[in-house]
Specification:
This protein is α+β, with helices and mostly antiparallel strands. It is built from four helices and five strands. The protein has a five-stranded antiparallel sheet with strand order 2-3-1-4-5, with helices on one face. A hairpin with a 6-residue loop joins strand 4 and strand 5. Helix 2 runs antiparallel to helix 4. The radius of gyration is 18 Å and the shape is elongated. The termini are far apart. GO terms for molecular function: cyclic pyranopterin monophosphate synthase activity. Keywords: Lyase, Molybdenum cofactor biosynthesis. It is an enzyme of class 4 (lyase).
Length: 158
């Protein structure tokens, strides 16, 4: 049985043993979007949402979530992240686009951290303006770039 598996010798779920892997620079970039009514987007853009700075709070929530991914996703390794950047951009007429970039020098990748950052940032946007638009949709959360490690580079098709 391969040492890089989520099953132990008895077939039970287990954390992958990465002790034998070399430390390398690793990067993951994920993206997603929150689609909403144009009037809701205008509230965010004008800073008039009742709960405050939607984009700023969502950015911080995404960064914090990336740092806590191993507490949220079973069998995910706790990592000492070297960079987490979360950017939120208003795209007229109806969306906030989110991108998270996560870096680490380590033995395992940071794809889950980037995806978690985007997801939590999107949920935070939703939470902060749901009172005026419960029909918002979180869409297209996906890994768009991964570099480093044994498997090399992955870049999603546009």
């Amino acid at each position: 049985m391969s040492s890089l598996t989520h099953f132990d010798e008895a077939g039970r779920a287990a954390m992958v043993d990465v002790a034998g892997k070399a430390e390398t620079e690793r990067l993951a970039v994920a993206r997603g979007r929150v689609v909403m009514q144009p009037a809701t987007l205008a509230l965010i853009a004008e800073g008039k949402a009742g709960k405050g700075d939607v984009l700023g709070v969502a950015r911080l929530a995404g960064i914090m979530a990336a740092k806590r991914t191993s507490d949220l996703i079973p069998l995910c390794h706790p990592l000492m992240l070297t960079k987490v950047a979360v950017d939120l951009v208003i795209v007229e007429p109806e969306a906030v686009e989110i991108e998270a970039q996560v870096r680490v020098t380590g033995r395992t990748g940071v794809e889950m951290e980037a995806l978690t950052a985007v997801t939590v940032a999107a949920l935070t946007v939703y939470d902060m303006v749901k009172a005026v638009d419960r029909g918002m949709r979180i869409e297209d959360v996906r890994l768009v770039l991964k570099e480093g490690g044994k498997s090399g580079r992955f870049e999603a098709e546009a």
